[in-house]
Automatic annotation (TrEMBL):
Protein name: Rho-GAP domain-containing protein
Domain of life: Eukaryota
GO biological process entries: regulation of small GTPase mediated signal transduction; signal transduction
SUPFAM superfamilies: GTPase activation domain, GAP (SSF48350)
Keyword set includes Ribonucleoprotein: no
Swiss-Prot/TrEMBL keywords: GTPase activation
Keyword presence, Transcription regulation: no
Gene3D superfamilies: Rho GTPase activation protein
Alphabetized Pfam families for the sequence: RhoGAP (PF00620)
GO molecular function, one term: GTPase activator activity
Amino acid sequence: VMLCSGVKEPTRSRYIALSEGIAVNGFKAKQSDVKPEMTATPTTFGVDLDQHLGKMGTKVPTIVSKCIKAIEDHGILVKGIYRVSGVKSRVERLCQEFEVSGGEDIDLSDTHPNIIANVLKLYLRQLPQPLFTFQLYPEFIRFAKHWPCNSRLELDSNSKEELKKLVEKLPKNYYLTLTVLIRHLKKVSDADNNMSPSNLGIVFGPTLLRTNGDQSCVFSLLDTVHQTRMVELIITLADYIFPN
């Protein structure tokens, strides 16, 4: 089942549940159908980023910071860390733990890194607005089209600065969360785990860059190569775009 960026909640949860085969915000994949389960109002998955951070009182979602720390502590050398799927039932269980507790007291030290990576990807995929935002989506795609993946040219200093300024246009909470995520993905790409910037771009491109609800899924699919390229570029240039 294809998850289209134009699908809104609660339909988005239904599609994700189908594609991932796990329960998400009351929707659980059961063979050929998805049936809603009674759950409390979502606190983490599918919740607006600004709203979530305001309620939690943190600068970056706890689920993001905890998952990243756990992966860097004991999972960064796992081959294909963000490409290999974890056990569905365990991914589902960890998602529910974050929903119930908010994540502050969750201990991930004994959780397999692939489970943690799956949960982080699922959280990012369920954000009502992706980290690159709908508003700036056309500008990021336009930039990526000028620097296609088959280009042998390297970005000159002016182009690097242009991309840096574009990223800095993001709203504060989105910028801070993206900073933490991309700097993490840069560390992942530098490790011996078969996760190069281009491979990470394939995994995270369509998640971090999505069109809004009034644009078709077909249109989004046409941009997939550019979504992938943009994430690859930003990971490669992470030290320049997100300086300490």
